[in-house]
User: Fold this.
Amino acid sequence: MRLLYRFLKVLPLWMLKSLFRFLSIIVYFALPKRRKIAQNNIKFAIGGDYKKLAFKSYLYFADMVAINVKYLGNKDFFEKHFTIEGYENYVKAKSKGNGVIFTTAHFGNWEMLVCGFAVLKEPIYIMVRPIDTKCVDDLVESVRASCGNRILSSRLSAFEFIRLLKRGNVLGILIDQAGGDGSFKVDFFSKKAKVSESVGVFCCKLDVPVLPAYLKEHDDGTYTIVIEDAIECDKDKARMDAVQEVMDRIYKRFEEWIREEPHKYFWMHNRWK
Assistant:
């Protein structure tokens, strides 16, 4: 697997994009159930020509994989092509001394997002779900770590993450897929979606600011890491009402991003199951 990765990495970007687009087209037509999930999700959330948008989404993620294979971990690339917008929001949040949670969705190039921040500013801890195939998981983890970030399994106890935050550390979490026991829900495109409430709980229990962030891509091949205003817990509300509000506000941000560029969202996941 590592040998294949090293071989792919030396190929020019245009060739990598062509290869992964070809593979994505095969997957699009070979897995009708997954294709239907993407189409139905887009039809419900966005409407319009949902079949065309689903196909465009597959191609976007093919390009994303190609770019990641080529440049993830390449510090010179990040220093040359990346800037940060809203860094003052991070500085303000961190100054509280209670740790910080970066949160994002499977929108745009989330791998480049956290890698770029590590290179331009400072490494953080990132929570990831381990891949079932060990050789693939080992490779992906080493690539992610090459940016300087520390990788944590999502299967760790919540107490481990609480300890990290209490020490003032920064934790990055993707939270837009189903999690928890299924009893906690938020409105996502006007429909209830099952989510894990962990980020809201950490926010309210530990007084940790939550910073939604995403990667903006420009036509000239440059990128901007966008760090939005912090979401904080309303201490005047009952605990679970406050947690609900935090999670609702996070998902509202996600929805705003996705409506702007819907082809950049990972619609293949059965989000409203």
